[in-house]
Each structure stands twice: as structure tokens, then as C-alpha cells.
Amino acid sequence: MSTTVTQPAPHPLLDLPPLTAERFASIERGVAELLGTRHDVVITQGEALLPLEGCIRSGARPGSTALNIVTGPYGTTFGDWLRNCGARVVDLAVPFDTAVTAGAVADALARHPGIDFVSLVHAEASTGNTNPVAEIGEVVRAHGALFMLDAVASVGAEPLLPDAWGVDLCVIGAQKAMGGPAGVSAVSVSGRAWDRFAANPAAPRRSYLSLLDWKERWIDGGRAALPHAPAQLEMLALEACLDRIAAEGPAAVMARHAAAAAATRAGAAVLGAAAYVPRAAEAAPVATTLRVADASLVVAKALAADPAAVLAAGGGALAREMVRVNHYGPAASPAAVAAALSALATALDTDADTTAAALAAADAAWAASGDQGREGA
Asked: Burial, 133: exposed, middle or buried (Cβ in 10 Å; 0-12, 13-18, 19+)?
């Protein structure tokens, strides 16, 4: 008696050959090239909170003192992790609608000379601000502290030069300006950061949070054998992101994000929606936040008008007063900005003439930015 076995049809997302160590290492090199770093790059198999927590738990310990710069919700999270590690934490908090200054950082370091770890978010997509990392890095480097930077929302959208800025730990994710998935992230690690981790008896070992495991089992071993099976689809997506950025050109990608921010601010002003971050120089190009009464209701109406509009209400208490336009990745385009402004205009019951004026202002701002990627305008 014969039995016929039906084989499943080949599937492009399932029937893939194993990701080799050589391919994994080549993707690491692509990340290093994007960051312009000569430091080791570790690609972590999860969302960017994974390497961020790993960096803090490896670099902070009882007896250390950390300066935690809070310019948005993620800074609050970092402070909680630092305290959980037993570190003494000095919080430097500024209003979420502004940026921290290098002078304020210098003052905090002078008041607390024992600070040996500094954590900062480059751009806060949730609040729409961005911080002057180059100036802050100079101050931190002069003090001698280890400098950790969350660059998840800035990579690809604005200049990011971790080596030149004295950043010891630069964490990125693929899900914002890079236009990729949230399930893969990376961190560049300086030599002195590795030394700090190795000297910390509380640093995670044999743990998903352990960066030292990656160094000892992957980097120190010549990247010959992966320590575990990688998240293959996410790794291939990260590789595709790097290829797409290289094809467009990093400068062009950043110009496109800057143009999207300028266009959104200009159009929103005509609609009567004030920028949450008043100073354009302190506003992140990855997302524009706006002050709008009853923001959650406004966003619900806007998405009812256009479910594809790249709009969201602020998180937590900000849901009452903030609308966020997420013009990052493929959505950093004239078409996406125009759709978001049109949906917002509908939600605000704006008349047709004002809506047209807002769209014209956005188009003019995009043109004035000098960006050439105006397909769909």
C-alpha cells in the first residue's frame, strides 16, 4: 500500500537557508558603516530596549553614580533601571517641549564629580525633541564618564557620529527612520565600555541581556560561530534597510526627514495647531508633535477620515494635549505629510480654503528645504 505525502509549497518567508556567521558579520559591518564607527558593533536579537537595558546593567553597579538626562519618557525608564542596579542616580530633567543644553550637563557634572555614567536620548519621538549630542559629548568626555546614547529615533533622520561625539554606547533600532522592523537592534561599544563591563561583577552573564556574552563568544572568537540562532527575518530586514539607505544615500535620507518635519510644522501652523516643541532647532526630524486640545479625540476623528494617516496621540498624560505626526522611514514623504495634514484638518473641522492653504504651506516648506525627493507632491 502506498501513501502519498503532500509537501507544503515553498514559502519565501519560511523556507530560507540558515543565516551564516559570515552574513551576520557583514550586516554588522553595514551598521558600523552607517554609524561611521570603528568600535565593535553587536546586533541584538530584539527591540532596542534589549541593548539599552543590557548597557545599563553592564555599566552601572552599586557604588557608581550616574547622570540620567530626562527629556522624555525613555529617560525616566533609564533612571529606573539605573536605580535598580544600585547606582546613585542624579536626574537632570528638562521640560519635554525643549532640549537639554551642554551647559546644564556641565553644571550637573561639576556639582557631582563622582559621576561615571551618563545616559541620554538623542531624539525623543514620543515628545518630538532632539538634543545637541555633539556639545554634550564634549562635556562628558572632558569629565571622563562613560556615555550611553539612545539613538533609536535619530539614526537615519539626523546626523549621528558616535565616535566623533565621544559616545561609548550608541544604541539604534530599525523601526523609525531606517524603515525596518522593531524586532532587531544594535549597539556600538567602545573599548573602555568593554573594560567597564568586564570589571563589573554584576554585569549580566549567560543572559539575553549580556553584551559580554556576545563579545566573548562571538567577537573574541573571530566571529566564526554564532552563539545562537539569529532572528533570521529581522536580520534580513535590517540588511535590506542598510541597502536601501545606501542606495538613496544617507544624506538624502536625512534631507527627506528634515523636509518632512519642516513641511509638517508649516502646514500645522496654518491649521492652528501649535508645535509642541516651539524651537525648530530643538525639534526632531523623525516626528512632529503638536499641541491640540482633546488630542485623543482629534486623532480618533482624523484616523476615521483616513486610517492610513501617520498620526497618533501622545502617550500617558500627553494624550490630552499632543498629536504626533510620525513622518519617518517611507512616511517621510510629501504624500504622507499631506495626508496627515488633510486628516488633521478634517478632525479640526477646518474649512476647505484653510486646508488648501495648509497644504500649500507644507509644499512650499518642503521645496524651501532643498530636498529633491518630492515624488507624490
From this structure: buried
For the beta carbon of residue 166, count every other beta carbon within 10 angstroms.
Answer: 20
Could you tell me if 82 and 89 are in contact, meaning their C-beta atoms sit under 8 angstroms apart? yes
Tell me if residue 87 falls in helix, strand or coil.
coil
DSSP state, residue 283: B
Cα distance between residue 227 and residue 307, in whole Å: 42
Closest CA to 377 of 338, 331, 330, 325: 338
Task: Report strand pairing: 65-70 vs 40-44.
Answer: unpaired
Which CATH topology does 21-246 take?
Answer: Aspartate Aminotransferase; domain 2 (3.40.640)
Phi/psi of residue 274, nearest 5 degrees: -75, 145
Three cell numbers, residue 168 = 561609548
From the list 276, 279, 289, 297, the residue with the least C-alpha distance to 348 is 297
Cα–Cα distance between 366 and 377 in angstroms, integer? 9
**What is the CATH number that goes with domain 249-368?**
3.90.1150.10
Contact 121, 150 (CB under 8 A): yes
**pTM of model > 0.85:** yes
CA proximity to 324, closest of 361, 283, 352, 281 = 283
Residue 274, H or E segment:
strand 274-275
Q: What is the pLDDT of residues 257-315, one digit of tens each?
A: 999 999 999 999 999 999 999 999 999 999 999 999 999 999 999 999 999 999 999 98
